[in-house]
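Bumping with the actual sequence this time:
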Amino acid sequence: MSRTVFGCIEAGGTKFVAGIIAGPDDIRATARFDTTTPQETIGATLDWLRAEQDLHGPLAAIGIASFGPLELDRQAPNWGHITATTKKGWSNTDFAGRIRRALDLPVGFDTDVNGAALAESRWGAGQGKPACVYITIGTGIGGGAIIDGKPLQGLSHPEMGHIRLPRHPLDTEFPVICPFHGDCLEGLASGPAIKARWGVSLSELPYDHEAHDIIAWYLAHMVVTLQSIMEPGCVILGGGVTATPALLDRIRVQADKLGGGYFRGQAADIIVAPGLGDKAGLLGGLALAQDIWTTMTADD
């Protein structure tokens, strides 16, 4: 029996990954494109989707999990836009609207971390959890929360990478790199913040270097903050920084110390690696495509 096929896009500041996907276990084709200009990168993605549609059959919907900030209010005149991003040349880009007009298909649109969180809650490490959070720690830090199967949204999407933090006692002199908030999580614990202090990535530093405990302490503060707000069933930590050997264990130890035994969730149980590995973002596109397709067909 044939399955419904969707076009999926994981749009990052460095690369786009596009896929033709029928299910989390049925990825038909993928392609990667460097993130250059909106015209070039979105154009190349559209050309590929059109060509693959000829091979795999009509697509039912498109799901886009994108870097941001984004306008997610479907009633807003600039819905589907990347708004005031730090990615040069991409501010005020009509991303989802261009895809929708070019392919004449419904488009599900959300942040890359909300998409990854949704995929992990549906098929990965967050399955069965009424509340789960996905955090990516790499070039930047971002987070998405899923509550009862739906991404958390307020006036806009969460910006968990910009929660304010105390300074580690051994890290008081670093001037930080976030131009907006100074001592925020991204300014202190992202990949560029690590390299600005110590000259290399965290994984390149010796195992006993103080940087490991400093970064684990900052990320543990984030976990305890999330526990205070929503007591998630799991906090899924992805991104390049978290690939550092033993970092998750260091974070767990620090989080339990900072939590003081107050919270129901124990760090050893709730702090986990992505269950979907590096496919979480692209499968986030699948989850968004499935959801908008379901909504549209229910309305017919």
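The tokens above came from a reply further down the thread. The chain has nine helices and twelve strands.
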